# Entry
Amino acid sequence: MIRLALWLLGGVLLGGIVHLATVLWLPELATQDAYSRLSPMAPVNAVTAVPSPTPDNAPVPFLDPAFAIAVCRYDLGNGPLKFSVPVSPAYTSVSFYTRNDVAYYAINDRAAGRRVIELELMTTEQRGELPGDEEVTAADRLIVESPTLTGLIVIKALAPEPGLMATAQTALKAAKCAAG
# Structure
């Protein structure tokens, strides 16, 4: 009886280790992540509107049809990036993701406290190269440090009613994401 219990315990432990290793390793093996799905339609360092999801076709799974969505696929290899988006009447959010879909920063219109969300995106090394005696203080501009050179900026504007979707899409069309 004890021998059977030891075999069962060993099997459960081995199964747990294999399960944990698989769950942790699977994201690295996935070939159809958000970055890969959006690469054909989104040029580098430019804002591109994401088509509204339909029941049969969505560029990325689990998109909310109440939001107008745009993305900027960025590459900081040539220098920092200047980003701006006017806020929509209802709600606007901006989320930053690494190439491997790890979220590292997010801001919404209420946190920004302005009619336009403006920031500079750069790596830690690029921020270290900024002149130390600048007249502009950190309070005057928002600097976001990216842990990687490439990634995605996802911009969402809420349309609380279907008739307001055009207004939300117009706000996203005015977004800018360019090297600067």
